[in-house]
# Entry
Amino acid sequence: MRKIMVVEDEEAIREVIALNLRMAGYEVSEAGSAEQALALFDQSYDVAILDVMLPGMSGFSLCETLRRDSSAVGIIILSAKTLETDKIRGLSIGADDYMTKPFSVSELLARVDALVRRVARSAGGDAAPETDGRMVSGSFVLDQKSRVLYKNGKPIDLTQVEFQIMELFFANSGGALVREKILEGVWGENYYGDVKIVDVNIRRLRMKVEDEPSSPRHILTVWGYGYRWNG
# Structure
């Protein structure tokens, strides 16, 4: 059974989310603060749903801490903060998705389901990997068994979303990918969110794979269209 952590200080909201997740078949843990969440958290959780406005440590700080502890856990930020800068901040520090309050429970469940599938996915992309489960592009190696990207033999720690974007790039090396193609390939065709989530994750990836992120050589922008991978 997949494990979900719900971190929300408003008990009524937390109970509604937890109840619906349990009815959907998930094992759910609840926390009213970031400190309680950190005491509960371990590597067995598949997804964490985080409110931003928490007593004590904020949801943003909790997101950063969880992401440092685990690149595998899926993180959804659920917040009353609706400004674009808040959304970009949440995605930039490691969240996989960002929903604003008030929210639809059915939409939240759909996003949790999609994120759980991404976290559980062992392979992706449009082309079959090499027989040893490794995809090679220039000085980069994408190991689909260990879910690790190597650059010149050195491992680069990626989130599950970042890894799946790299799988798409490797499978379409040299070809331009429109943002909507990346969105559909990683977040699913029924994703409700903004295509800007692609741009935020691309910026985060560039910080990890490029020698000079401000002058990228590998993840290239195709203006007015999307991105192209150059190994």
Notes: Confidence is low (pLDDT under 50) at residues 122-131. DSSP finds eight helices and twelve strands in the chain. The two ends are 38 Å apart (CA to CA). The longest strand covers residues 74-79.
